[in-house]
Structure formats: structure tokens, C-alpha cells
Amino acid sequence: MSGSSPSPAKTPPTLDSAQRRQLRGLAHPLKPVVFVGEAGVSDAVLKALGEALDQHELVKIRLRQPPDKKSTAAALAKASGAALCGVVGHTVVLYRPHPEDPKITLGKRT
Questions:
Q1: In this structure, what are the phi and psi dihedrals at residue 41, rounded to the nearest 5 degrees?
Q2: pTM for this one?
Q3: pLDDT computed for residue 22 by the predictor
Q4: Domain count of the fold of the chain
Q5: pLDDT by residue (tens digit) across 70-103?
Q6: N or C: which end of the chain has fewer CB within 10 A?
């Protein structure tokens, strides 16, 4: 990860556990759109992730044999300005609402 990240790190949305659960449910039928290979998190991966989040808001990322999947997931979330919704196996779910036209409506805390 070099200094020229595709989109400047934005403040990730703050989600409560119910909202993360809702997003994991919405992500369940989705296929991974970004793949992190043996080379790890690179500028190309971050660029693809930024574009996928801009287009879809909610994405799955597939990790191939990560040395530490939780830290890799956290690094992806931080670099993309997205909220980490969960890690299941080698699949990471990230959410970042579109800044102008959000498509996913989250339930509010009561």
C-alpha cells in the first residue's frame, strides 16, 4: 500500500450490531467482487475496492490464504473508508454508503 490511495480515506460509517447484521444478511446472496491474492493488499486491490464500493455500497471481498484475515479485513476497511460488517471464512463484507445517492437504507436504533 503506497501513499497514492485511489480515494482518500473517508470516515467509515458507524454501525451498531443490528445494522451490521442487516448488512450481512443483504450481502449473503452476493458474489465476491474483489479478490485479494497472495500478493496481499495492493494499490490495484484498493482501487478495485473503491470502485466497487462506489458502485454497489455493499461488497464482498475474497481473501486467498491471508496470514491474518482479521487484520487484513481491518486494513481494507480503513484504507477504503468503509465499515467492516463481518468476516466469515475468507470472505470480508464491507459497507460504504454512496456520498450523494445512497441505495441501502439501514434500520435506525430505537
A1: -80, 115
A2: 0.85
A3: 93
A4: 1
A5: 999 999 999 999 999 999 999 999 999 988 888 8
A6: C
In a domain, 85, yes or no: yes
Residue 7 has pLDDT above 50, yes or no: no
Provide the residue type at 13 as one letter: P
Phi and psi at residue 101, to the nearest 5°: -140, 70
Contact between residue 104 and residue 57 where contact means Cβ atoms under 8 Å apart:
yes
Closest CA to 51 of 87, 82, 86, 92: 82
d(CA 38, CA 20): 28
**Cell numbers standing for residue 102:** 445512497
Residue 30 located in a structural domain = yes
Give the model confidence (pLDDT) of 9-51 as tens digits. Answer: 567 788 899 999 999 999 999 999 999 988 888 999 999 999 9
In a domain, 33, yes or no: yes
Count of CB atoms situated within 10 Å of the CB of 36: 26
Look-up: residue for cell 494499490? 43
Distance CA 101, CA 57 (A): 10
For residue 109, tell me if it sits in a domain: no
